[in-house]
Amino acid sequence: MSSFWKPSRKTDISFFFYLLCFSLVLIVCLAVYVLHNSNSETAEKQLKLERDSLVSRVYQPRSDTLLTKEVDISAGTMWDTTLQYFRSRSQLTGSDAVQLKWSHAVNSRNALAQALSSPSHMIEADVIMRDHDPMEPIMAHPPDTDSDITLKEWLEKVKMTSKGIKLDFKSLEAVSPSLALLEDLLAEPDRPLWINADVLSGPSGRTAPVDFRAFLSLVSDLPAQTVLSLGWTTGWTVGTNNPGYSWDMVHAMEEKSRDLKQPVTFPVRAALLAQSFSQLSWLLKQSDRYTLTVWTGQHDEFAPQDLKLYRKHFDVSRIYYDLPNSQTAELLMS
């Protein structure tokens, strides 16, 4: 028994030794495999986070709308540099667009002389075609059909100053011959040049808008620094419940504006802002190329608080105010 037991015991010990070694090797291999997978999973998660972060910076919730300036600039789009132009000339400080002063409806020689000698930064004027010979662009607002100054004469005087320009086109026929006269100004990379037209029907709008498609076919190839001012025809009646800008109106405007390479400002009537906050807020959020320009009719009534709501919720550099100085002064103090 003794001689049989001893060899068998040695055999068992050797077997368990090899089994232990095999188990240790298996455990080490298992540990290496788990560690490798863990690192790969962590790296994959990190890569996904970085990719998601990049996507979130490049796109808004709507996948077709670019958000970051770096990407849009590479695609040839531009941001509004109006404030930067006047800051670089020490005519403005800070980035609050309410500081910008406007001369409005500068449609005569006398009005132009006053505007050029005023502290205004921007000069706004209306352009139509003269309805008799010589047929050429003139400075007038319908129902006027003639003027004592042509667009060519008007531009020659303004070009001698550092004023910014906003031209409001009341008819499509005036656009093409006017752009031909703007060649020198378009060659200036810095001077603010805004091209405006009411291209959609808006709240209580009774006049026919300028044809949007035809207008864009003429202005879409303008230099990328040109500001396109795209508005709605509107109306306002004292003592009545005036409707604001509807969802259909802002959706239609954004759809037509989203692929433009130029900065776009939307002229909005001050008396309609209170009832349009949700709609205009949505519109402004769709692209950082977009701004609002608040204007008012001669007999319109509105509360300054209606404008302060927008100033509270949006960057003050993204809302311009083509308003009387007394009203902009109150906003500056708010």
From TrEMBL:
Signal peptide: none annotated. The keyword Transmembrane helix applies. InterPro entries: Menorin_dom (IPR019356). Residues 96-327 form the Menorin-like domain. It comes from the Eukaryota. One of its GO terms (cellular component) is extracellular space. Belongs to the menorin family. This is Menorin-like domain-containing protein. It comes from Xiphophorus couchianus (Monterrey platyfish).
